[in-house]
Amino acid sequence: MALSRRQFLQISGATAAGWAMASVCPNWGLLRAAEQAGATARIVPTYCEMCFWKCGVLAKVIDGTVVKLEGNPVHPHCRGRLCGRGNGGIGLLYDPDRLKAPLIRTGERGDGKYREASWEEALAYVADKMQVIAAKYGPESLALFTHGSGTSHFYPLMRAFGTENVAMPSFAQCRGPRVAAYDLTTGIDIGSPERLDMPNSKVVVLLGSHLGENMHSSQVQDFTQAIDNGATIIVVDPRFSTAAGKADHWLPIRPGTDMALILAWIHLVLKNGWYDKDYVERYTTGFEDIRDSFDAYTPEWAAAETDLRPDVIRETGRIIARNAPAVALHPGRHVTWDGNDVQRERAIIILQALLGTWGRKGGIFLPSPAKLPPLPGGKAFPKPKRKPLNRGDFPFAGGEGVTNAVRASTLSGEPYPIKGWFVSGTNLLATLPNPEETRQAIRNLDLLVAVDVMPTDTVVHADVILPECTYLERHDAIAQLRGRELALAIRQPAVEPLYNTKPAWWIARSLANKLGLGDYFPWEHYAEKLEEDCLVWDVDFEELKQKGVIVFPGSAAPYITATNPPRFKTESGKLQLYSEELELEDFAPVPEYVQNPQPKNGEFRLIYGRSPVHTFSRTVNNPVLTELFAENEVWLNAGVAEEMGLKSGALVRLVNQDDVLSDPVRVKVTERIRTDCVYLVHGFGAKSKRLNRAFGRGVSDQDLITRYAVDPIAGTTGMRVNFVKIRKEA
Amino acid sequence: MPRYAMVIDERRCIGCMACIAACKAENEVPPGSFRTRVRETVEGKFPYLRMEIRSELCNHCDNPPCVYNCPTQASYKDEETGMVLLAKEKCVGCKACVAACPYDARYVNHEKGVVDKCTFCSHRVAKGETTACVTTCVGGSRVFGDLDDPKSLVSQLLALHPAETLLASAGTEPRVFYIRRSGKPK
Amino acid sequence: MEVTVTGINALAFPHIHVWDWRVALYLFLGGLSAGLAVMAAVLHLYRNGDLTYKEGSSWIAPLLVPVVLGIGMLFIFLDLENKLNVFRFYMTVQILSPMSWGSWGLLAFFPLSALFALGALPERHYGWLKLTFLKTLARNMNRQLQCLAILNLLMGVFIGIYTGVLLSSFVARPLWNSSILPILFLLSALSAGAALMIIVARSLQAKLFFTKLDVILIAAEMTVLPLFFYGQYTSSAAHRMSILPFFTFTHEYLWYGAAIILIGVVFPFALVLKMIELRPGHVSEITRGVIFRMHLSATLVLIGSAVVRFAFVYAGQLSSFS
Ligand SMILES: Nc1nc2c(c(=O)[nH]1)N[C@H]1C(S)=C(S)[C@@H](COP(=O)(O)OP(=O)(O)OC[C@H]3O[C@@H](n4cnc5c(=O)[nH]c(N)nc54)[C@H](O)[C@@H]3O)O[C@H]1N2
Ligand SMILES: Nc1nc2c(c(=O)[nH]1)N[C@H]1C(S)=C(S)[C@@H](COP(=O)(O)OP(=O)(O)OC[C@H]3O[C@@H](n4cnc5c(=O)[nH]c(N)nc54)[C@H](O)[C@@H]3O)O[C@H]1N2
Ligand code: SF4
Ligand code: SF4
Ligand code: SF4
Ligand code: SF4
Ligand code: SF4
Ligand SMILES: [Mo]
Question: Domain B4-179 belongs to what topology?
Answer without folding.
Answer: Alpha-Beta Plaits (3.30.70)
